[in-house]
Amino acid sequence: MLEIKNLHVEVDGQEILKGIDLTVEPGEVHAIMGPNGSGKSTLAYVLAGRDGYEVTGGSIAFRGEDVLEMGPDERAALGLFLAFQYPIEIPGVALMTLLKTALNAQRKARGEDELSTPDFMRLVREKAGELNVSQEMLKRPVNVGFSGGEKKRAEILQMAVLQPWLCVLDETDSGLDIDALKVVADGVNALRGPERSMVVITHYQRLLNYIVPDKVHVLSAGRIVRSGGKELALELEESGYAIYQDEAAA
Ligand code: ADP
Ligand code: MG
Ligand code: MG
User: Fold this and answer.
1) Which of 47, 48, 66, 171 has the fewest C-beta atoms under 10 angstroms from its C-beta?
2) 205 lines ligand 1 (CB under 6 A)
3) CATH classification of 2-247 is 3.40.50.300, yes or no?
4) Which residues contact 150 (CB under 8 A, 6 or more apart)?
């Protein structure tokens, strides 16, 4: 699904990612944990193809294709989805309109017909219901005046409608109370399956009680300094990240 080899990334001439290797098989859920400023969001952005993140070495293959040759829209059409740590507001564009436009763009890129309006409405109502997203929220401009929890649910709704192959979730748990966290985790778990993979980025272990990962990686100062099974997240809860700082520096 995803094969990252020796990835080096610079932002504003400063090296942020210093040689990342990561392989995610179909069906696997990988958690990336690490302290603030370790490069977690940088990794998410470079996967999605955000401007200003310069790859100075290494490679990223997604479903066997070199994504570094593709724009963000092509990556999305191929089935790569990023749920943002800080979802942006899009005044003037209703959430419903965003969903329909994104889904149809994806279908077009894959040579499929547009979904009819009744079929689209049925799909969105079903997914929105599961995520406690109201009809009223669907009509509002994307994220404008949404609470933190509503923004995160809107991200997961986009994911549920687009059914990506690879979901990258950047600190989807930040700012959520326990009830909102459960709704989001249920939404994510509903999308788990043998052919879909997820990279769940989180600072805290708490989310991983609800979205149980197959593998956990610790990112520190732009390097993966440790990888293990789900028990590694619990260990980190005990030890904190400080013990990895020296390792990363070395
Ligand atoms: P995390 O998501 O793990 O908190 P980030 O990927 O956001 O970490 O940031 C990693 C490092 O890159 C930090 O030191 C941060 O200051 C730096 N950084 C991130 N974005 C930019 C940017 N646009 N310009 C300059 N430095 C940046
Ligand atoms: Mg951060
Ligand atoms: Mg971040």
Assistant:
1) 66
2) no
3) yes
4) 133, 137, 143
- Confirm or reject: Cβ of 220 under 6 Å from ligand 1: no
Rounded to whole angstroms, the Cα distance separating 222 from 214 reads 22
- Strand runs labelled E in 95-247: 141-142, 166-170, 197-202, 215-220, 223-228
- What pLDDT, on the 0 to 100 scale, is given for residue 238? 86
Q: What ipTM describes this predicted complex?
A: 0.90
Minimum-distance ligand to the CA of 37? Answer: 1
CB 172, CB 200: distance < 8 Å: yes
Please state the domain extents for the chain. 2-247
Residue 127 pLDDT class (50, 70, 90 cuts): very high
Q: For 207, which DSSP code?
A: G
Answering whether pTM is above 0.90, one says yes
Best mutation site among 15, 18, 38 for ligand 1 pocket (most ligand atoms within 8 Å of CB): 38
How far apart are alpha carbons 238 and 250 in whole angstroms? 23
Which ligand has the minimum distance to the alpha carbon of residue 86? 3
CB-ligand 1 contact for 11 (6 Å cutoff):
yes
C-alpha 4 – ligand 1 centre gap (Å): 19
